[in-house]
Amino acid sequence: MKYVALLSVALATVAAGLLLGPASVPAGEFLRSPIVWQLRLPRVVLAYLVGGALGVTGVALQALVRNPLADPFLLGLSGGAGLGAVVAIALHLPGPWALPLAAFAGAVGAMVLVYRLGLIGGTGGAGGELDPRILLLGGVAVGAFAAAITTALVSLAEAAELRNAFLWLWGGFSAASWTTVLVMLVYAPLPLAVIAAAARPLDLLALGEEPAQYLGADVRRLKQLVYLAASLLTAAAVALSGVIGFVGLIVPHVCRMVWGRLHRTLIPTSFLTGGILLAAADTLARTAVAPRELPVGIVTALIGVPLFAFLLRRWTVS
Amino acid sequence: MRRWAHRTHLAGLLACIATACGTGHRAPPSGGITVTDDAGRTITLARPARRIVSLLPSFTELLFAMGAGDRLVGRTAWCDYPPAALSVSNVGDGMPPNIEAVAARGPDLVVLYRSAQNAPAAAQLERLGIPVVVLDLNQLTDLGHAARILGRLTDRKQSADSLARVMDSAAAQPPAPSTHSLVFIVWDNPPIIIGAGSYLDRLAALAGARNVFHDIGSPSAQVSIETIAARDPDFVAVLSDSATLPSFAARPEWRVVRAVRHGRFLLLPGRLFGRPSPRVARAVRELRNRLNGEGGAP
Amino acid sequence: MDRELIVAIRDLTCRYADAPRDALREVSLDIHAGEFHAVLGPNGSGKTTLVRAALGLLRPVAGRAEILGRVASEWSRRDLARVVGVVPQREDNAFPQRVRETVLLGRYPHLSLFGSVRETDRAAVERALVACDVRDLSDRWLWTLSGGEYQRVRLARALAQEPRLLVLDEPTTSLDLRHEMELFELVRELVDTRRLGALMITHHVNLAARFADEVLILADGRAAARGAPAEALTRDTVERVFSWPVAIEPFDGRPQMIPLRQRKDAP
User: Fold this and answer.
1) Does CATH place domain B16-171 in 3.30.450.40?
2) Which of A248, A309, C34, C240 could form a disulfide with A54 if both were Cys (CB 3.0 to 4.6 A apart)?
3) Strand order across the C24-32 sheet
4) What's the confidence (pLDDT) of residue B1?
5) How far does CA A141 lie from the centroid of its chain?
6) Residue A293, pLDDT above cutoff 80
7) Above 90 in pLDDT, residue C146?
8) Which residues in chain C touch residue A213, judged by CB atoms under 8 angstroms apart?
9) Rounded to a whole number, what is the distance in Å from the CA of C141 to chain A's nearest CA?
């Protein structure tokens, strides 16, 4: 059964993440090694959670904007996060959590801005209604705007530290610890539950907003809740691990090819698949060029593209 | 008044451009100085440079050390050693150089650090007819070489050469027997460390410290925290001008590294350690003192 | 025979935001179970507005629209979807789907938030597929269907909702003669055998006259005529509303409209 296969692969990637790494841990010390339990395990778990969040967000957004090319980072959140991070560094904000908090604040700021823009184009009813096409356009615009301000700040202020902020933005799980895992475990369930509850209405939304309404979906509230949940998940993902593209775009397509379109199955399988992809990518990033480490975003693309091409060929032939 | 200054400035620039258009392919005058810089360019001066703008703190220090400090008419905002340098006009932070500010000082020589970012600046200054000498300064061995070239351009050959000999011998010292190990951390997220390709690695060896990432050939590289933890350095060295520990010291994932757990940090001031400096001997001493726990001046 | 009143619209007046004129003025309409109503009128006469207001998507400026005795805009979308099955004019399916899956979407108003699809749901889908004569197509992909087949599938989806009222917005545009007739026959049959109410917006005056129990002719947002086809479709009314000379000839007890040619030297 496909589900059994998925779960086995999931467990296998966890094992690989624990066993493999640039540091060699002798078998005898394995159970006591802080490298395994304080670094590798939280890192694998965080990669799972972030990958899962990105996968689910990709599914939700592609349904919301009715566009198979939608990706969580089209909403302008990465631009906002980058700006927040750069501001935090430029102002020398104190504390070890200043960077992720500022990035999160920046991402949420971008979300609010895009949301307001999205209301402008909406049609009648009491107050505005979100127009998903405007959401996309607004996201691209806000992201570009934030990126421009960020670049300006970097070029005007003390160069070296701020340029290093961009390294962070390229994504990675170096900052994984049980603390960050806990944050994600506490934070993620609510937006995930919102999206899960929207599974059936999202099926209907594929027919168009008007038909979906006639089939019983409260389209106006659906758009608001799904957009907010998706943005909040993405904001957390960016704050904790930078911008890791490709996962949110490809995982929904892979899962649709294997499991079909219904969101009831698509959402949990995308969560697992996204987690597997990112955890495997992180393990590879750590071990492929040891002792050096690759940025995770490169590895996800290197794994994801061939996988996608393979599945595309197999499933379009049938 | 301001309009006058602008007009004069503009006239000056136009004059420079006019001369530049004519300076294309003249044969070097006899008695002039000709050197080849690190970018393979040929610099020809009719007479020793008298109005120099230095765009790197180490070049400023070198010029002062060889007795040509009085010829400086421009320096970057970062050039703060020796103290006499502070009285020279500041032409900005130099990365990338502010061409107008540099040209406004009317220099007959600009000393520029070789990097991809500075390449357009070199071309622009050339178009204005201002001689530019582009020099590497990435390794300790570059110091002596730079001193020699600057010595010829300023006709301070003798003092420059003896300065170069001192710095070369300091750089050529055999590594001291290593008493401690360390890791240089440039950035924490993602972790970027210094490898054998950087002068810091050489500095550490001279001071008797083994860089745990000496096996990585490039100047810097991204690694995982677990690699750092597994190699278990005695110290974590960071470039920092403050006395407080870097923010990542408090993060839970870094505490797997023993040196972080025990707070064994080396906070190395940027002025002395940020770039190969003529005071290399002092930098080595400073580092050695700190490694042996004798503290050091911040 | 006492037929249940499904839709009650009284003196409904609607205006869109920032519009200079009312889209609907004082329109009334009653739809009982087992009645097939057709709404006719030129473009922009307010037909779609009427449907939107009847289904609570548009708040009226004056008058009221009620479904099963409750004000239309007070119905939750979910509850309303269990009573009214709509086949809108346009559908833009973003992702590929099979016939059976798309008809199953009609059961969603009956499914609980996290509950699964039950036997009753599958049975309802089956009945809907059979009633619309698309059961043989149930495993086909939607994009492989002809226009007529696709329309019947959409009707099956609306039927799977097990509604009391069917609303169809210009369901036969771009269908050929056979598929057009089949659709009208199908709606008539559903109304007769299942005691559903039907409200159809259509441009096809003659078919509306043949099949509908009552027609409502709108012009500029007002009701130009309302009643049984024989009464409502008079030559005067049609000529006035559609701005074209016609002749009205009876066929099968129903008036049929024949547009006249304008050119004087026409044979």
Assistant:
1) no
2) A248
3) C24-32, C5-14, C62-67, C70-71
4) 42
5) 20
6) yes
7) no
8) 57, 77
9) 13
A197 lies within 8 A of chain C by CB? yes
Partners of B134 in beta bridges = B112
> Would you give the DSSP letter of residue A38?
I
Q: Testing the interface with A: which of C108, C121, C170 to mutate, by most A Cβ within 10 A?
A: C108
The model's pLDDT over A167-210, given as tens digits with 9 standing for 90+, comes to: 777 778 988 999 999 999 999 999 999 999 999 999 999 899 88
Sheet containing strand C197-201, edge to edge, reads C84-87, C165-169, C197-201, C36-40, C214-219, C222-227
Q: Is it the case that residue B23 has pLDDT exceeding 50?
A: no
Distance CA B150, CA B154 (A): 6
The structural domains of chain A, with segments of one domain joined by +, span 1-36, 69-268+287-317
**Second CATH level (architecture) for the domain B180-291:** 3-Layer(aba) Sandwich (3.40)
Q: What residue segments make up the domains of chain C, in order of their start?
A: 1-83+164-267, 91-162
Domain with CATH 3.40.50.1980 in chain B: 16-171, 180-291
Of A105-109, A164-168, A292-296, B180-184, which gets the smallest average pLDDT?
A: A164-168
Across the interface, do B226 and A286 touch by the CB < 8 Å criterion?
Answer: yes
Residue B97 pLDDT greater than 80, yes or no: yes
Asked if A109 contacts A77 with a C-beta cutoff of 8 angstroms, the reply is: no
pLDDT at residue number A270: 96
Out of 3.40.30.10, 3.40.50.2000, 3.90.930.12, 3.40.50.300, select the CATH number for domain C1-83+164-267: 3.40.50.300
Closest-CA residue of B relative to A172 is: B190
pLDDT of residue B296: 42
Determine the pLDDT at residue C91.
84
Interface of A with B (CB under 8 A): 21-25, 34-35, 38-40, 42, 94-96, 98-99, 158-159, 164, 167-168, 172, 174-179, 286, 290-295
List all residues of chain A from 124 to 183 with a beta carbon under 8 Å from chain C. Answer: 124
| ipTM of this complex prediction, to 2 decimal places | 0.89
Chain B residues inside the 8 Å CB shell of A290: 227
Q: Answer for the pair A63, A263: CB distance below 8 angstroms, yes or no.
A: yes
Stated as kind and residue range, the H or E segment containing B52 is strand B52-54
Q: Does the domain spanning A69-268+287-317 belong to CATH 1.10.3470.10?
A: yes
The pLDDT of residue C58 is above 90: no
Asked if A210's CB is within 8 angstroms of C105's CB, the reply is no
Q: Residue holding tokens 């000498």?
A: B133
pLDDT more than 70, % of chain C: 97
Q: Which residue has the tokens 């771009």?
A: C174
Q: Do B183 and B234 form a contact (C-beta atoms < 8 A)?
A: no
- Reply yes or no on whether the pLDDT at C189 is more than 50: yes
Q: What is the mean pLDDT of chain A?
A: 87
**Chain B residues with CB-CB distance to A167 below 8 A:** 187, 189-190, 192, 222
Q: What chain A residue is nearest to C161 in terms of C-alpha separation?
A: A215
Handedness of CA B63, B64, B69, B73 (dihedral sign): positive
Distance CA B40, CA A219 (A): 67
Task: For A130-171, write each residue's pLDDT tens digit.
Answer: 888 888 888 899 999 998 998 888 777 665 666 676 777 777
What integer pLDDT is reported at residue C264 of this predicted model?
A: 64
The predicted structure's pLDDT at residue C267: 57
DSSP for B176-230, please give it. Answer: PPP-EEEEEEEEETTEEEE-TTSHHHHHHHHTTEEETTTT--SSEEEB-HHHHHH
pLDDT tens string C64-83 = 999 999 999 899 999 999 99
Chain B residues touching A40 at Cβ < 8 A: 226
A neighbour chains, 3+ CB pairs within 8 Å: B, C
Greater confidence, A165 or C108?
C108
State both tokens at B123: 């071309």
